[in-house]
Amino acid sequence: MTVWIILLCYIAIMAVVGIITSRKVSGLTSFVVGGRKAGAWMSAFAYGTTYFSAVLFIGYAGRSGWEYGLWAVLIGVGNALIGSYLAWKVLANRTREVTRRLKIKTMPQLFEQRYHSKPMKLYAAVVIFIFMVPYSASVYSGLSYLCTEVLKIDYNIAMLAIAVIAAVYLVLGGYLASLTADFIQGIVMIVGIIAMIICVFATPQVGGATNGLSTLIEKMELADIAAPNTELMIGLGGLILLTSFGSWGMPQMIHKFYGIADKPAVKRGTVISTLFALIISCGAYLAGALSRLFFSDVPMLNGVKNYDLIIPQILTNLPTFLLGVILVLVLSASVSTLSGITLTSCSSVSMDLVAGALRPNMDKGRTLTLTRVLCVLFIACSYLIAMLKTPILMLMSFSWGSIAGSFIAPYLLGLYWKRMNRAGAWSGMIGGLAVSLLLTVVSGFNAGLAPVFGIIAVVVSFACSVVGTLATSRKGTQSAPEFFEVFQQEEQAEMPQL
To answer: What's residue 279's pLDDT?
Structure first.
């Protein structure tokens, strides 16, 4: 009963957020980028809650914690320093400035403006939609064992709760609702992860922080993972790079920079986002590392080792009230990620594909309505894929690498390298995606190799972008001088007046 009361309170709060913020939606711009008035705390929490989903808490944390022990906490440190701090330092202000002055609302529009290519905008919109569907479906998967094994709640009910909550507040309030909800959900996630770590350390199996950590090191020595070795460092490094640097090319993450109010908000948001990631990610991986104090081997399901059972079974040792908080924590992580993916994908389709190509005369009012309808359909489609466990869900493991391989190089190089041109961008987009898909098929859809394939795709994308640019002449390749005038104007505005 306690768990249900906590869950219903959370649902009610999210519904109220949607209703209140719906009154502030004045048009397409406010629905998609919130009128570009988001402050530091809102933007930082929106970035962090979109970054970390149930996949982190139930999937990555359990498996990585078991395989790498305390070394897994380095993944959390990488997420904080590379995925948050460095991403904000390198990308946030330039992205905010150029999207504001050139009135860019989506990543496909950014590519169109930077490389003077409408086909590139359409291509990017299609890639985003295709690969975001299985990725969004995977958001539900983290709840499966937590609900059925620990809380005794039907998995389908939990998935339906995610779908309904996300649909209600996102369709009503759009980006404004998402910002407010992400802030609330961010607070829930921080409180939940701290409470979870404290209670896990207090269990008889761990016996306090000092005893628990010393015993864990002994367990790691027995498993031959206490001292760094080549295999361990390669596997760990691959996860750090993919989960940290890979986020730089994810449209739903970059979208959070579009609506930041001003440069001071970027500076404050950089610190807040980094601290948020440090607490959430390191806390999750620490809980996973402590799993060796609870199990002598990986839990089995139907005769097969199942790493997704690790965290849920650890949680069975916690008080009922805290289990309710943990459920809301995982729900918050899932809903915020799903809403970010949905808004990014559907706005790209409605504005870039439909209004941008199929129906060029569509007014903003109808485009807004279409975006809302697509949000409902996208969430429903993701729910059905997850519920029916269709084969497309297998592609989830490769979605992150495929999207990152397509977009990181053209996006990052496009912001800083004036010589980067249309030919280079096309080479990077197609080359990265093609390598990711080829490796996926050749491996027989081996999900365990997905992080490695994602890194290879990103490296290939950068190489193709540079080679494609240098191999073509400057003439006729459109290096978008007006794009860089935006940064020159900002620099001039910041110079002291004599």
So the answer is: 94
Q: Strand runs (DSSP E) across 187-331, as ranges?
A: 300-301, 304-305
Q: Which residue type, as a one-letter code, is found at position 94?
A: R
Structural contact between residues 376 and 167, judged by C-beta atoms closer than 8 angstroms:
yes
Nearest to 120 by CA among 472, 433, 466: 433
Specify the CATH architecture of the domain 2-389.
Up-down Bundle (1.20)
Q: Is 301 helix (H, G, I), strand (E, B) or coil?
A: strand
Helix axes 118-141, 364-388, angle to 10 degrees: 40
Tokens found for residue 84: 């948050």
Among candidates 309, 258, 370, 197, which has minimal Cα distance to 29? 258
Three-state SS sequence of 153-182? CCHHHHHHHHHHHHHHHHHHHHHHHHHHHH
Residue 472, SS3 per DSSP: coil
- Residue numbers of the chain with a pLDDT score lower than 70: 1, 141-146, 149-151, 389-397, 447-448, 473-482, 486-498
DSSP secondary structure letter of residue 448: G
Q: What angle do CA 101, 272, 287 make, to 5 degrees?
A: 135
Contact 277, 247 (CB under 8 A): no
Give the burial string for 210-222 (b: 16+ CB within 10 Å, else e). Answer: eebbebbeebbee
Q: Is 203 exposed, middle or buried (0-12, 13-18, 19+ CB in 10 A)?
A: middle
Secondary structure class of 297 (helix, strand, coil): coil
* Percentages (nearest 5) of helix, strand, coil residues in the chain: 80, 0, 15
Residues in the chain, total: 498
Nearest to 65 by CA among 201, 325, 324, 239: 239
Backbone φ and ψ of 260, nearest 5°: -65, 135
Q: Residue 212 and residue 218: Cα distance in Å, rounded? A: 10
Picking from 62, 55, 125, the residue whose alpha carbon sits closest to that of residue 393 is: 55
Q: How far is CA 12 from CA 7, 19, 165, 168, 321, in A?
A: 9, 11, 9, 11, 18
Q: Outline which parts of the chain fall under CATH 1.20.1730.10.
A: 2-389
- For residues 422 and 117, what is the distance between their CA atoms, to the nearest angstrom? 7
- The pTM of the full predicted model, rounded to 2 decimals, is 0.86
